[in-house]
Amino acid sequence: MNIKKIIILSLVSIFILSSAGGYYFSYQLPKSMVNRIIHKSIEGNFSDLNIRTQDKETLQQFFKSEYATKDLDFSGELTHMNPNRPELLYNFEYIDYNQINQIRQIIGGTLAIEMTRQSFFKWKIKQVRIIKNLQIYN
Question: What is the secondary structure of 41-70 as a DSSP string?
Fold first, then answer.
């Protein structure tokens, strides 16, 4: 009876660990990688990026805008869940307030980053596209 409980507990544990690992490597790992690239881009470190030259130029064009600041907040969401080719849609915005906490202006833009899975542990950026340039919204 103890052996059956141990086997069942072991199988349940293996199932839970494999589910958590699959979630991490399919969803969190590509987002983490792109987040590092975006942080480097916001800081202006384009030469350190391990991506295609065209994608570096796209990021430079986006982040060299007169509206790009280190205060830009961004949120990344997967647009579709194809496990081998997800596309991450990043919305950037900065809200500028006056002295009495009224919104003076909102700066926003959007990037789409398509990725491919090279192996279970390795992701690569396939393409970076500007969906909406950084601009002021009143």
Answer: HHHT--TT--S-HHHHHHHHHHHTSTT--T
Say if CB 53 and CB 34 are below 8 A apart.
no
What is the Cα–Cα distance from 106 to 94, expressed in whole angstroms? 6
Closest Cα to residue 77, out of 131, 117, 20? 131
Length of the chain: 138
Q: What is the mean pLDDT of residues 61-88?
A: 76
- Between 53-63 and 29-43, two packed helices, what is the crossing angle to 10 degrees? 60
- Give the tens place of pLDDT for each residue, 7-42: 888 888 887 877 666 666 555 567 788 888 888 888
Say if residues 49 and 118 touch (Cβ distance below 8 Å): no
